[in-house]
Design goal:
The strands form 2 sheets. The chain has a 3-stranded mixed beta sheet with strand order 3-4-5. A two-stranded antiparallel ribbon has the order 1-2. The chain is 29% helix and 20% strand. It has helices at residues 8-19, 61-73, 99-104; strands spanning 23-24, 29-30, 37-42, 46-51, 81-86. It is globular. It is α+β, with helices and mostly antiparallel strands. It has 3 helices and 5 strands, in the order αββββαβα.
Length: 108
């Protein structure tokens, strides 16, 4: 377990690295590369993540949000409050994927 300390950029990177371990089971690519993570705010006492899904009708929504919470909790002390919210604006678009994700899908 790592402390969420130091500057905000270091704390955010810790969280992003944890979220890279959360794989969308329908696509087989992590949620960061898919562009599903919209915002990470992190400090020594709290982590707030805003993320989306490829579609509001995605049946894996609660599963991915809970996996995200668990991934973050695995790298922060128990005292840190972790909140993961699903957002629908802006709507996710394939252009939000990283080049790495597009390459894995054979799009580029």
């Amino acid at each position: 377990m790592t402390e969420v300390t130091g500057n905000a950029a270091q704390a955010r990177e810790l969280v992003y690295n944890a979220l890279r371990g959360v794989i969308d089971p329908e696509v087989g690519i992590n949620i960061v590369e898919l562009g599903l993570v919209y915002e990470v705010i992190a400090d020594a006492s709290r982590v707030d993540v805003t993320m989306t899904l490829t579609s509001p009708a995605c049946p894996m929504g609660n599963h991915l949000a809970e996996e995200s919470r668990e991934a973050i909790r695995a790298v922060v002390p128990p005292s840190v409050l972790v909140d993961v919210k699903l957002a629908w604006e802006p709507a996710w678009r394939p252009e939000m994927m990283s080049d790495k994700a597009k390459q894995l899908l054979g799009w580029i």
